[in-house]
Design brief:
The complex is a heterodimer.
Chain A lengths: L13 E5 L15 E2 L2 E5 L2 E7 L5 E7 L2 E7 L5 E7 L11 E12 L3 E10 L1 E7 L6 E7 L5 E4 L6 E8 L13 E10 L5 E9 L6 E3 L2 E10 L5 E5 L9 E2 L16 E3 L4
Chain B lengths: L7 E3 L2 E2 H29 L5 H23 L7 H18 L1 H16 L7 E4 L2 E8 L3 E6 L4 E5 H6 L2 E3 L5 E10 L5 H13 L11 E7 L4 E10 L3 H18 L19
Antiparallel strand pairs in B: 1-2, 3-4, 3-7, 4-5, 5-6, 8-10, 9-10
The chains are: A mainly beta, B alpha+beta.
Chain lengths: ~270, ~270
C-alpha cells in the first residue's frame, strides 16, 4: 500500500507495511512523504519516526540484529524514503558505479542501440519540514554490497560493483532493491564493438522513481577499442515518475560534469 | 598635536611612515588570513586538501611578499638597492643557514615530484604515519599512535619513502592451516564465501585462495585479498576472525603444532 498522508493530524503512529511479492500486483513501494509519527515496514526492515518522550522525535531503523536510532529535534515534519546514488554504503569509498554485464553486447558500426540493465538501489531517509531543502539522515540498502577496481592497480578507480543482465523490456524486479537503467550505446566507429561493462560517475546521476519502478537514463559513447564515455540524461524511463528530492552528488563540484571516461576497456 | 608624526625617526623616515608601514603590514596579514579562511571554506568540498593547502599558502605568502615590497620604500629601504646587496646577503645567508636552504630546495623538489600527499599513509626514515602537512621546510607526520613527527624536507628527500596509499588498492595475506583429515577444497569454498560477503574485499583484482604447502601439522592455505588502500587495515582485522569462525562452523579443524610419539613395546 502507498500512503501520502501529509495532511493527517497528529495521533498514534500510522503503520504501513509493504512486502515484495512477484506473484501479486501491489500498489508499489510506499516511498512517502510520511508525516511524523509513523511506522513503516519494508520487507524485513522497520523504519519508524516516533514521538520522543522529552523533545522532538526519534528515528529508528531495525533489520534483524542491525539497529540504528537518531534523535530528530524538530516539532513536526515529513520523512521521504527514496532511492539515492548507489555509492553511499559504506560511506566515502567511491563515487563510481561499475555495471558488469552477464553477457556481452555486440554493436554494429555506426549504430546506436538501447538496452535495459539493472542497478542497485541505495535508499535514503530524507527529512523535510515545509519548504526547506531535504536532508538525508540515513542511507541503507537491501542489496549485497561489493566493490571492485576498474582499471589497473596503479591508477584504477574503486567502483561499487553490480552484475546485471541485459534486457529488452523492463524486467520483473523488486523496486526496493533494483532499478532499471536505459543505456543507449553509441558506436560511431567503423568497427564492430563488444561491451562487457560500463562505469558511471555518481556525479550527475539522474534517478527517477515511482512506487513500482526506479530508473536512470544513460548514454555510452564508444570512442576507440578501449575507450568509451558515459553520462546521464535527465529524463525518466516512464511518464509520471518523480525525480529524487535530494542529489548528494549533484554535478556541482569543480571538474565533475557527471561524465565518465572509461580508458581501461568496456 | 600630531606634529610628532612628521618627526624623523631615522634618515628620512618619519613616525608617520613607520605607522603607515605597520598598518599596511597588519592589513596585509588580516587580508591574507581572511582570504585563506574564505578559500578553505569555499573550496573545502571542491578540491583535494593537498591542492587547497598549496593554493592558500601561495596566496598567503604572495600577499605578504607584495605587502613587504610595497612598504619597503616607506621605511627607507629601496628594493632596487636590495637587489645589489642581495647577492652578498644570499651568500652570507647561504653559508649561515645551509640546512635551511637545503630543506627549502628539497621542499621545492618535493612539491614538484609529489611522492607524498597530505592524508597519505607513509613510512619515511622509520616513521610510519599519516602526512598531516607539507610545507616549504618540513613534512609533518601523525604516527599511528597519535604523535606528531616533523621531518625536515632534506631528510624526506634523501630517504626512501614507502607510500601505502599511493595506489588505490592494496593486497594482504593470511595463512590458514587445516588438519590433514579435512577437505581442503571445502575449506577454500568456505573461505571464499566469507570473502564474498565482505563489501570491501574487492571483486577485481580477484582474491586468491590456494593450498600453499603441506606443513608438519597442517595443510596451509594461503588467502590473498585486495582491498581499497584506504580501508585495507580494517578489512584485514575483520576478515581473519570471520574466516576462523566460518571454518569452525563448517566443522573443519585448525590444528595446533603437534608431534606423535611412538613408544616401543616394553622388554619383558
Amino acid at each position: 500500500m502507498h500512503n501520502e498522508h501529509s495532511g493527517r493530524k497528529e495521533g498514534p503512529p500510522l503503520q504501513i507495511s509493504w512486502t515484495y511479492d512477484p506473484e501479486q500486483e501491489s500498489e508499489g513501494v510506499p516511498w512517502g512523504p510520511h508525516k511524523f509519527p509513523f511506522i513503516l515496514e519494508l520487507d524485513e526492515m522497520t523504519l519508524a519516526v516516533e514521538k520522543n518522550s522529552k523533545e522532538g522525535f526519534i528515528y529508528r531503523r531495525i533489520k534483524e540484529e542491525e539497529a540504528l536510532e537518531k534523535s530528530v529535534l524538530i516539532d513536526n515534519g515529513h520523512l521521504t524514503v527514496c532511492p539515492v546514488e548507489p555509492v553511499h554504503i559504506p560511506a566515502r569509498i567511491s563515487i563510481s558505479l561499475l555495471i558488469e554485464l552477464n553477457f556481452p553486447v555486440v554493436i554494429e558500426p555506426r549504430a546506436a542501440r538501447q538496452v535495459l540493465l539493472t542497478f542497485p538501489i541505495d535508499i535514503a531517509s530524507v527529512i523535510k519540514r515545509g519548504k526547506n531543502e531535504g536532508n538525508i539522515i540515513d542511507v541503507f540498502t537491501f542489496n549485497r554490497v561489493k566493490y571492485s577496481l576498474y582499471g589497473n592497480i596503479n591508477d584504477g578507480v574503486i567502483c561499487r560493483y553490480w552484475q546485471s543482465g541485459v534486457y529488452a523490456d523492463v524486467p520483473a524486479i523488486n523496486p526496493l532493491e533494483q532499478g532499471v537503467m536505459k543505456l543507449e550505446i553509441q558506436n560511431p566507429g567503423n568497427r564492430w564493438t563488444e561491451v562487457n561493462k560500463a562505469v558511471f560517475s555518481a556525479f550527475g546521476m539522474k534517478i527517477y522513481y515511482s512506487p513500482r519502478l526506479v530508473s536512470m537514463n544513460a548514454v555510452m559513447k564508444i570512442s576507440s577499442d578501449v575507450t568509451a564515455e558515459t553520462g546521464f540524461l535527465d529524463k525518466p524511463l516512464k511518464a509520471g515518475m518523480k525525480k529524487v528530492p535530494v542529489e548528494r552528488y549533484g554535478a556541482k563540484l569543480l571538474g565533475q560534469q557527471g561524465r565518465t571516461v572509461m580508458e581501461e576497456g568496456y | 598635536m600630531f606634529e610628532w608624526l612628521n618627526q624623523e625617526v631615522y634618515g628620512n623616515v618619519t613616525w608617520l611612515n613607520l605607522i603607515t608601514a605597520l598598518v599596511i603590514f597588519i592589513l596585509a596579514l588580516v587580508v591574507a588570513k581572511a582570504l585563506s579562511v574564505q578559500l578553505r571554506r569555499s573550496f573545502k568540498d571542491k578540491m583535494s586538501k593537498e591542492h587547497l593547502e598549496i593554493m592558500t599558502k601561495v596566496i598567503t605568502y604572495g600577499i605578504m611578499i607584495v605587502a613587504v615590497i610595497w612598504i619597503m620604500p616607506t621605511i627607507g629601504i629601496e628594493p632596487s638597492g636590495l637587489m645589489v646587496a642581495g647577492g652578498i646577503v644570499a651568500l652570507a645567508v647561504g653559508f649561515a643557514s645551509q640546512s635551511i636552504i637545503g630543506n627549502l630546495i628539497s621542499g621545492l623538489f618535493l612539491m614538484g615530484e609529489r611522492p607524498v600527499k597530505i592524508g597519505d599513509l607513509v613510512e619515511i626514515s622509520e616513521n610510519l604515519g599519516f602526512v598531516e602537512d607539507i610545507n616549504i621546510i618540513s613534512v609533518s607526520i601523525r604516527t599511528l599512535d597519535g604523535n606528531m613527527v616533523r621531518i625536515p624536507n632534506e631528510t624526506v628527500f634523501t630517504s626512501s619513502i614507502t607510500n601505502y596509499t599511493s595506489t588505490p588498492v592494496r593486497r594482504f595475506e593470511y595463512s590458514v592451516g587445516i588438519s590433514y583429515a579435512d577437505d581442503a577444497a571445502r575449506a577454500i569454498e568456505v573461505i571464499k564465501e566469507v570473502i564474498d560477503s565482505h563489501p570491501l574485499a574487492l571483486v577485481n583484482p580477484p582474491p586468491h585462495i590456494f593450498v600453499d604447502s603441506l606443513g608438519d601439522s597442517s595443510i596451509d592455505i594461503i588467502v590473498r585479498i585486495w582491498s581499497p588502500s584506504t580501508h585495507w587495515y580494517g578489512v584485514k582485522m575483520e576478515l581473519l576472525w570471520k574466516i576462523k569462525a566460518a571454518i569452525d562452523a563448517a566443522g573443519i579443524e585448525i590444528p595446533f603444532p603437534q608431534r606423535v610419539l611412538w613408544y616401543g613395546a616394553k622388554k619383558t
